Amino acid sequence: MRTMWKGSIQFGLVYIPIKLYTATENKDVRLRMLHKECMAPINYTRTCSKCGKAVENEAIIKGYEYAPGQFVPINEQELNDLQEDGDKHIEIVNFVKLAEIDPIYYEKSYFIGPDNGNGLRAFSLLKQAIQDSDKIAIATIIIRSKQHLAAIRSFENGMLLETLYYPDEVRSISEVPGLGDVKTDNAPKEMTIANQLIDQLTTVFQPEHYKDDYRLKLEKLIEDKVSGMPVKQKKGHVPQPNVVDLLSALEASVKETKPKRKTTARRKKTV
Questions:
Q1: Rounded CA separation 149/90 (Å)
Q2: DSSP assigned state of 116
Q3: What PANTHER family would the database entry show (predicted)?
Q4: How far is CA 46 from each of CA 4, 32, 41, 60, rounded to the nearest angstrom?
Q5: What whole-number distance in Å separates Cα of residue 133 and Cα of residue 112?
Q6: What is the spatial distance between Cα 119 and Cα 116, in angstroms, rounded to a whole number?
Q7: pLDDT(263) > 70
Q8: What letter does residue 47 receive in the DSSP assignment?
Q9: In this predicted structure, what is the pLDDT of residue 125?
Q10: 198-234 pLDDT per residue, tens
């Protein structure tokens, strides 16, 4: 597993050397854009929107558009000067309960591993302390020239760091159109059946039971086409039922998802 960040966790006056490793990976199947006639990949070149010339990487700089068509250039040194000297350590600022953080704030997950044997004792101490406290640490970290808010928690035999969105990066739900028309006085009978449907669908979360059906179908399609096998055409789109009566639809849903009772053979009584 490749290290993507190296630094330390500041826990009070204790500095714990650590490494970060990306905890998740994108399994999307990437399709290339091809020229239909040549069946070759399409190349894209960087061109200037003013003169139309192709621009090499060494001639490209960064800038901010402060007005339409008006830019102010900002170089790498100026960006680096904005970072504090401690940009290679994670500073723990608070401890909170996990339930107090709404999932909308979570951005990306990283495994935290010890950097060397000298900091192993402090690493183990922090992991155990966080686990025993039943809380998570709120910290700040700079990754790729961007400061992130982060949550650090105990995870199996190590720790996990999850970057968080700042409050001003999370949009207000009040901006969603149509929410003002949502009813709050739902019919009692409909609510009862809806709750019954939820109860019947409730289970223990086991992530291994879920799979990306579309990706698996796409991978199978690619495998069949590479091997020259004929591709089966879908017969047609199955129209979704038009729900007119909400109560009837809920009752039908409860009936469809109702778990089947196990039938056991009755033993005959022996005299």
A1: 10
A2: S
A3: NON-HOMOLOGOUS END JOINING PROTEIN KU
A4: 28, 18, 16, 10
A5: 19
A6: 6
A7: no
A8: B
A9: 92
A10: 888 888 888 889 888 888 888 888 888 888 888 887 7
Q: Is the pLDDT of residue 264 over 70?
A: no
Strand-strand pairing, 5-11 and 89-96: parallel
**What's the CA gap between 190 and 254, in Å, rounded?**
12
Four-CA torsion 48, 54, 58, 63, nearest 10 degrees: 10
HEC string for the chain: CCCCEEEEEEECCEEEEEEEEECCCCCCCCCCCEECCCCEECCCCCECCCCCCECCHHHCCEEEEEECCEEEEECHHHHHHCCCCCCCEEEEEEEECHHHCCHHHEEEEEEEEECCHHHHHHHHHHHHHHHHHCCEEEEEEEECCEEEEEEEEEECCEEEEEEECCHHHCCCHHHCCCHHHCCCCCCHHHHHHHHHHHHHHCCCCCHHHCCCHHHHHHHHHHHHHHCCCCCCCCCCCCCCCCCCCHHHHHHHHHHHHCCCCCCCCCCCCCC
Which CATH code is given to the segment(s) 5-25+82-169?
A: 2.40.290.10
Tell me what the pLDDT averaged over the chain comes to: 86
- Selection from 8, 11, 28 nearest residue 20 by Cα: 8
Q: Give phi and psi for 265, each to the nearest 5.
A: -70, 130
pLDDT at 242: 61
In which band, very low, low, confident or very high, does the pLDDT at 271 lie, cut at 50, 70 and 90? very low
pLDDT of residue 240: 62
Tell me if residue 77 falls in helix, strand or coil: helix
pLDDT at 1 exceeding the cut of 70:
yes
Measure Cα distances from 24 to 28, 108, 171 in Å. 12, 8, 25
Both tokens assigned to 261: 């009772």
